[in-house]
Design goal:
Pfam families: TetR_C_41 (PF21351), TetR_N (PF00440). The protein is mainly α and 196 residues long. It has 9 helices and no strands. 77% of the residues lie in helices and 0% in strands. The longest helix has 25 residues. The protein is elongated, with a radius of gyration of 19 Å.
Length: 196
């Protein structure tokens, strides 16, 4: 039983890895399930067993990449001078990841088109909870205005996500990026108890 579970986990990881490459290179619509499975020596049956269908595989890939993005953004925030600067750095880092071709294609373009509203994705819900906890501490410490913490967290995360979506969909992402980050910082600054 343990060996079977281990084989299933390995097959799942192989399929996610192959899908990341195929979805980034060809896009979701053009990526063939047969090419995906044969690239890692598995059958369509393995894909269906692990993910239900191609859409389920995309959801697993998006969840993995989006979780990596959140972790990377949190690392950027941890390097900032204080918790407020950390919150701003996390949002800016998330927006900047829209320049990564894999993130751009899979998470910000194909993900919403196939999976729907990103704010409903499990990885986004997890990120929202982390932001809400940070906001609660900033309010308690007097750094932020005493607004509803969940509302503020949802607006901050939504602003970063929508800025990243804008960058990804733009014909000139590198030109749009600084504008998006500047506007995100200005919007967030409105939540400060004592504006900079």
């Amino acid at each position: 039983m343990k060996k079977r579970a281990q084989t299933m986990a390995q097959n799942r990881a192989k399929l996610i890895s192959a899908a990341r490459v195929a979805f980034a290179k060809k896009g979701y619509a053009a990526a063939s399930m047969d090419d995906l499975t044969s690239a890692v020596g598995l059958t369509r049956g393995a894909l269906y067993h692990n993910f239900g269908d191609k859409r389920g595989l995309l959801a697993a890939v998006v969840d993995q990449i989006d979780s990596e993005m959140a972790s990377s953004a949190q690392q950027a925030g941890a390097q900032a001078g204080d918790e407020w600067q950390g919150l701003l750095a996390e949002g800016a880092a998330y927006i900047e990841m829209a320049l990564d071709p894999e993130v751009q294609r899979i998470v910000l373009l194909d993900g919403p088109a196939v999976l729907g509203d990103p704010s409903q994705w499990p990885s986004q819900s997890s990120c929202l909870q982390v932001t809400r906890q940070t906001v609660e501490r900033l309010i308690a410490g007097g750094t932020m205005k005493p607004v509803d913490a969940e509302a503020a967290a949802r607006l901050l995360n939504g602003a970063a996500l929508n800025a990243a979506l804008w960058v990804a969909a733009s014909t000139s992402p590198k030109t749009v990026l600084p504008k998006a980050v500047e506007a995100f910082r200005a919007l967030a600054g409105g939540l400060l108890a004592k504006p900079d």
